[in-house]
């Protein structure tokens, strides 16, 4: 039998939750779109098929609030806005690449496990 779990095993992780935008569908995709430099809102919409302008705006605003990107507004008609990753945002690229590599390597196993589970249910 295994040792009992330590009731304080997560005590070092107390405090506010981390501001991770990686737990939603769009955060990692937005970061990937911005990895090579500044982009305008309309440029981001092209590869982010299926995202509504409202959800894209909300996601960008949340990521700006968390310090992952900057929003720069230029005067003019119509006004021009560009988004760019901050150093904090760029720091997520390496872990994202590792996660993607893991997923690519184990995707077949994951699909098989899901199918086996669904067949047994």
From TrEMBL:
Transmembrane segments: none annotated. It comes from the Bacteria. Pfam families: HxlR. Residues 13-111 form the HTH hxlR-type domain. Keywords: DNA-binding, Transcription, Transcription regulation. GO terms for molecular function: DNA binding. PANTHER family: TRANSCRIPTIONAL REGULATOR, MARR FAMILY (PTHR33204), TRANSCRIPTIONAL REGULATORY PROTEIN (PTHR33204:SF39). This is Putative HxlR family transcriptional regulator.
